[in-house]
Amino acid sequence: MIEGETIVSHLETRRSGGATRDDLMKEAVGLIEAARQDYDWVGIYLLQDGVLVLDNYLGEETEHTRIAVGDGVCGTAVAEDRNLNIPDVNEIENYIACSIGTASELVVLMRTSAGDVVGQLDLDSDRPAAFDEGDERELGVVADWLGRLFDEG
Ligand code: SME
User: Which pLDDT does position 153 carry in this prediction?
Assistant: First the structure.
């Protein structure tokens, strides 16, 4: 069970202690990955000039460090401006496999206060249908907090 507010309160404490945005994004990935055993890969992609660029992650090494908007589950989430919960990645035609063991995937978009997408939390699990509405909601709390770190001025 993952609790977004608990993770955010850890992050708030770190921020008060002077942690940078990069530190906080790494910290967030660590806290999320530790929350459940079947979160097998957890990472943050940031949207830079229309391309998703891998910021930091925990799990198997991946060569997919840059994903164009529209490609794969990650790029489709941005193109369609919505979170994507994929219970069976084998059913996705343009799926980009990072690990052959992955069975399900959840992408939760990170937005600024103004609602602009700045990146995403990407989670993979080796278990089919590992993610439910609770995961999406709780990760949404963390993604919203992270997204606001990108507010201008
Ligand atoms: N599966 C993703 C690519 C990223 S890896 O899961 C780390 C996709 O289809 O976009």
Answer: 59
Q: In a mutational test of the pocket of ligand 1, which residue from 90, 95, 108 has the highest number of ligand atoms less than 8 Å from its CB?
A: 95
Beta carbon of 124 within 6 Å of any ligand 1 atom:
yes
Amino acid 55: pLDDT: 98
Residue nearest to atom 4 of ligand 1 (CA): 98
Q: What is the pTM of this model?
A: 0.97
Going by C-alpha positions, the residue among 108, 111, 153, 115 that lies closest to residue 131 is: 108
Residues 61-112: pLDDT tens digits? Answer: 999 999 999 999 999 999 999 999 999 999 999 999 988 899 999 999 999 9
User: Domain limits of the chain?
Assistant: 4-152
From the CB of 96, is ligand 1 less than 6 Å away? yes
Query: For 4-152, which CATH superfamily applies?
Result: GAF domain (3.30.450.40)
